[in-house]
């Protein structure tokens, strides 16, 4: 007896594995994960932010943000310090090196995205974006 998946299940399966492949290739090409780049991008928008607020902005769990920030700190891209007003609060900010490097990462991200979508014309890209937005909306409503 063979088991066959519905077309919808196959689509979700492909989206799942595309996400894994994109994440792996992205980090290989840019030298940074998409999660860490998003953290840097959020930090670029502010002078300093609490780790808890940053976690909410990028919507990742507590363990993941700690792991990412620790690695970014080791790479001297961010600094963390305790709030002078509340020792329980950790404040995070970009270093000058981090601020300078984010431009390079953004360029590499754009190049990666262009390579991934190289065989898609503008209309197909618009249609794909629309479909992905609809999937995202459906998931949020679920």
TrEMBL record:
Any Pfam family the entry gives: MarR
GO terms, molecular function: DNA binding; DNA-binding transcription factor activity
Domain HTH marR-type: 8-137
Keywords in alphabetical order: DNA-binding, Transcription, Transcription regulation
Keyword Transcription regulation among UniProt keywords: yes
Keyword Transcription regulation: yes
CDD domains, per database record: HTH_ARSR (cd00090)
Protein name per its UniProtKB record: MarR family transcriptional regulator
């Amino acid at each position: 007896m063979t088991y066959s998946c519905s077309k919808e299940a196959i689509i979700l399966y492909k989206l799942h594995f595309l996400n894994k492949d994109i994440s792996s290739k992205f980090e290989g090409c840019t030298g940074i994960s998409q999660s860490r780049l998003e953290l840097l991008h959020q930090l670029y928008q502010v002078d300093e932010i609490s780790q808890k607020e940053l976690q909410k902005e990028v919507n990742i769990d507590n363990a993941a943000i700690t792991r990412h920030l620790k690695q970014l700190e080791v790479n001297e891209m961010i600094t963390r310090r305790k709030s002078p007003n509340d020792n329980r609060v950790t404040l995070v900010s970009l270093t000058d090196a981090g601020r300078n490097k984010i431009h390079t990462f953004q360029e590499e991200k754009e190049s990666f995205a262009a390579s991934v979508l190289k065989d898609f014309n503008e209309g197909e890209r618009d249609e794909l974006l629309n479909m992905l937005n609809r999937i995202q909306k459906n998931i949020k409503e679920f």
